[in-house]
Amino acid sequence: MKLFHLLTLFPILAISTPLTARAGTSTFRLSVSFPGIDYGKYLTGFVSYANGTAQVGRAKYNIYSEPLLLTGGNGGLSFLSFHQTPTGFVQLYIRPGQTAALGFGTPHGSVPQGVQTTGFKFNSAGNLTVDGKQDWLVCADQAQEENGSGVVYWKGGYGLPAGLTCHDGVTLTKAYGCKDVLY
Q1: CA–CA separation, 70 vs 106, rounded Å?
Q2: What is each CA distance from 66 to 53, 142, 173, in whole angstroms?
Q3: CA-based torsion, 124, 126, 127, 132: positive or negative
Q4: What is the pLDDT at residue 121?
């Protein structure tokens, strides 16, 4: 059978081809845990993407939320929202020396000046580190806390964000494969 006929019969092959352009990378999720986490309240142990931030808990039920499916290599991580074109990847970043929400650049590459996009690696236990440190927080305002959701922060500076309840000792772990990626 000729290729033209195969593409006519199976058009999804033509559509999915650009999605495999990042050969050699794997896609994975991040699971989250912290001391005293109430899975009955948070309902999920996975990180989602919503409103330009990495969120945990019931935020996944918001219409604008989606699974945070990451790819990475060479010390950096990227994310492709299903609202973007197949090349609209964004880079994850932290703000060195500051306690701030885990950031996402704009599609096709730009990030704010002075942020760090490298040093993201997984240790031997599969936990996400930046330059070998696991300084993650989950912080929430009152409405998020009551709803059982929160935002992932990098604890790079002294003190905690004002007006937020923060959980320290957060571990973000690489999770992939069918049994681990359930949303």
Answers
A1: 15
A2: 11, 22, 18
A3: positive
A4: 93
Phi and psi torsions of 109, nearest 5°: 120, -25
CB of 138 closer than 8 Å to CB of 152: yes
pTM for the full model?
Answer: 0.79
Select from 141, 158, 150 the least CA-distant residue to 59: 150
Question: In the predicted model, what is the mean pLDDT of residues 65-79?
Answer: 83
Dihedral angle at the C-alpha atoms of 41, 123, 121, 171, nearest 10 degrees?
A: 20
The residue count of the chain comes to: 183
Rounded to 5 degrees, φ, ψ at 139 are: -120, 150
Work out the average pLDDT over 33-55. Answer: 79
In a 13 Å sphere around the CA of 152, the CA atoms on its Cβ side amount to 32
| % pLDDT > 90, the chain | 36
Q: Give the mean model confidence (pLDDT) for residues 143-151.
A: 88
How far is 135 from 66, CA to CA, in rounded Å? 24
Q: What angle do CA 50, 51, 53 make, to 5 degrees?
A: 70
Tokens of 80: 């492709």
